Amino acid sequence: MRYAINCQFERLPAEIINQYSTLAVADICDALGRNAALPSALKPLGASRMLGTAYTVNLPASENLLLYYAVDNARPGDVLVVSCAGYTERAVAGEIVANLAKARGLAGFVVDGAVRDAEALRQLDFPVYARAVSPNGPYKDACGEINVPISMGNVVVHPGDLIAADADGIVAIRRQEAPCVAEQAQKITDAGLKKLRSIGQNGSMDMTWLYDKLSKTCCDIHS
């Protein structure tokens, strides 16, 4: 069997990526219909804020040969999005490869599997998200695929997608949708800030929408 290592894919312009630099992942998810987040089991070890272009890596269980290829060939600002065949009992990344990725200017790791050297990763100013931690080390005997669509939960991540993460979790935005999603997410952010200002100034916010909704349901409010 032959595996695909794809070197070329289209990345978003920096000016579009930068539109996401102050947006919360929750607001981006709302702009995408409230069902776009990567699995909640993916947690950060240390730094949580991450923004960059998806460079996808599809690994066989227990193997990380192509993770080193990805670190050596990805561009500064890329996020390595790594699928590990759902296996969490053997780490595919740790302190050494994370430090190498940071030195190369990569924007972070998303590992749908296990990592190790957890304490060192927590102290490293480099975002690493993973599903699990295991001290078992990886093998380097099998190949895999680079820059192909990969699945994480109910989300398919494509090379070139925009990856955004913060303490709430991770979201992938399709490259073609990124400009309009940024605009919609900014509107959601602005609306949220308006509500917070109202609460801070008056101790309340406009709840007309709530009672409009209730009036259209089968709820009876007895006063």
UniProtKB/TrEMBL annotation:
GO terms for biological process: methylation. Its cofactor is Mg(2+); a divalent metal cation. Keywords: Magnesium, Metal-binding, Methyltransferase, Transferase. PANTHER family: 4-HYDROXY-4-METHYL-2-OXOGLUTARATE ALDOLASE 3-RELATED. Substrate binds at residues 94-97, 116. This is Putative 4-hydroxy-4-methyl-2-oxoglutarate aldolase. InterPro entries: RraA/RraA-like, RraA/RraA-like_sf. Pfam families: RraA-like.
